[in-house]
Structure to design on (752 residues):
């Protein structure tokens, strides 16, 4: 096991990259999809099942964990890995995005953000220094800078002002993080959809120096076209020898497009959240298991899938347990979706390594275009 | 694997019995606790996890399954075992109890019960013949006679009248069941708390002849003392060479008391339902994981337990995920409770085999009397 954090780029195909991130807690094969374990659990999954889908790393949410059960409490209990029974790498976000989207009354200053908890209304402060402290208390392997993500729509001037605040916070995050061998700190590029602002942000982050770089401020409602527009140039502003992380993405076709554009890491609640609302993802697109056409269907969700939901259960069963509001519906559909996402990442990595990404992507879109299997 | 249904009594200790039920789908070690899989799932559990706790057999509910997804549908899909991915024995109840406790408008006649579904208000009929048909469509290994369980309080005359109706229905159930090698039909003794009525019911059932016999009409709110009062004599009215099943029982001390009184099989929603409401059962009694005293406790629920919840998680974690309404709370607490129940059955079987049941029971009560571990 590596003693230090490192990244090895093993292959490229066009702008797409295949590699391995090394950490003392294990390797992360990139491009990597990180399931989200917001409140110290990937909802409806046992951690050993998450691992069985092929996940090398989880994401934990600083905002949720600081409020409940509390970062100091998790530290006393031995850290987040032990607390939630996941001994592989964990990336934690900084809390910056959730504090703006979820918390109650909040006040943004140069210092940071004061806010009230959405759980119990209690008062809290997040700043670069406190975010670094919390992520250290949690024992995070990959720590994210504390940044501000402006609400859309925003003028270019607003985006510029916010980006420059985030860059000052990036410096304070770097200073507060200190030197922690085996743990990584990632900077977050901002700048909206303006190339000059993205370039300015990237330049500042490179000056400060980070172990990896995130493309922030996307997947916040701007649409796939605008997102891909930024990804067509922004990753190129970042160092080649460090991992590039696109936060909060996405649907399967978002992921494929991001990987084509040089992204190494992604996270999203979509596969787990979809599972709980009866939406399944397959190579042929999205399946709504609530639909009555499944109620007599003995076929699996996806013939080609090796997950327990597809190996052991019919669409009729999944429909029945979902309609009956049985917990196993969430368990099986979440498992399937996470399995599908990890299978997709595996396919992308293999295709990049073989120099066959364009063929893989063409097949991906052609299969989706078929739509779900015909009703019986 | 046995081709026929059979029961071998292997040891007795006082009135308590240890044995094995053989079926084409596998053996059932008795005394056996049967987890309840009402709607084709043991709530919050994967079937392989239920099996891992030590369960040899599940119970399915005719009433729920006939209404949703429908017995004919399950038959078309290959039967309940395949539908819910459980290849070991399944016992199904007759629907008689639930139709009286859960359904809407209902009319009881000599023929059977007409009622409206609690799911969608649709009209249905249950009779001995229809109950046998449904249980056959489901593919049940152990089929229960269709009976009537009178609501309490009831006069002795009401109980007698109801019992005699149930005995006529038992004959009709036997006739409708026919000859199905490898499948068993159990009669259900009624008669409330009146020894003469219990004796009359048992005599009638023995005349008809069944593969096993249930003690019905208990665990319906009469209290443990009254239940044990009946169990002090009623099992003795039944043939020694057939399994005796106490329906809907119970708490751990109910189970121990029933086994002491000659019961071989039991079922109850309690361990799974308790798991979903934050109640855990341990050798030291009941633990309410919601209680704030657990929030910093790094100790497992039960040091002596080998279930995943106890091996891999602290009370602090279980408290956190329960308070956060995370699905994993139901998954882990249900798993723990089912594991504890099966461990208890294993202990009872071993104690009976060794002729040491009284010592085991004394230890069981002494450990419970200690109460839960001291707060930190």
């Amino acid at each position: 096991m590596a003693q230090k954090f490192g990244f090895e780029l093993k292959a490229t195909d066009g702008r797409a990259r295949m590699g391995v991130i090394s950490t003392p807690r294990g390797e992360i094969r990139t491009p990597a999809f990180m399931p989200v374990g917001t409140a110290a659990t990937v909802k409806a999954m046992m951690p050993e099942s998450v691992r069985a889908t092929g996940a090398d790393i989880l994401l934990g949410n600083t905002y949720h964990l600081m409020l409940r059960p509390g970062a100091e409490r998790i530290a006393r209990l031995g850290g987040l890995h032990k607390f939630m029974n996941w001994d592989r790498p964990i990336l934690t976000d900084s809390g910056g995005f959730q504090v703006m989207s979820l918390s109650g009354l909040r006040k943004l200053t140069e210092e940071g953000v004061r806010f009230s908890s959405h759980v119990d209304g209690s008062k809290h402060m997040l700043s670069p220094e406190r975010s670094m402290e919390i992520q250290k208390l949690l024992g995070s392997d990959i720590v994210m800078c504390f940044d501000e993500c402006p609400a859309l729509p925003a003028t270019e001037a607003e985006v510029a002002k916010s980006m420059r605040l985030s860059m000052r916070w990036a410096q304070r995050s770097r200073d507060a993080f200190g030197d922690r061998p085996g743990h990584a700190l990632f900077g977050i590029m901002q700048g909206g959809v303006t190339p000059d602002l993205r370039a300015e942000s990237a330049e500042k982050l490179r000056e400060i120096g980070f172990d990896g770089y995130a493309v922030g401020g996307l997947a916040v409602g701007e649409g796939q076209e605008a997102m891909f527009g930024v990804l067509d140039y922004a990753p190129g502003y970042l160092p080649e020898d460090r991992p590039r992380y696109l936060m909060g993405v996405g649907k399967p076709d978002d992921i494929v497009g991001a990987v084509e554009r040089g992204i190494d890491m992604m996270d999203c609640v979509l596969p787990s959240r979809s599972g709980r609302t009866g939406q399944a993802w397959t190579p042929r697109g999205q399946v709504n298991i609530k639909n009555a056409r499944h109620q007599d269907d003995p076929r699996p969700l996806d013939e080609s899938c090796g997950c327990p939901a597809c190996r052991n259960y019919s669409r009729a069963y999944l429909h029945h347990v979902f309609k009956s509001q049985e917990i196993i519906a969430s368990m099986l559909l979440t498992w399937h979706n996470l399995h599908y996402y990890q299978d997709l990442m595996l396919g992308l990595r293999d295709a990049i390594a073989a120099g066959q990404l364009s063929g893989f992507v063409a097949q991906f879109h052609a299969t989706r275009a078929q739509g779900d299997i015909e009703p019986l």
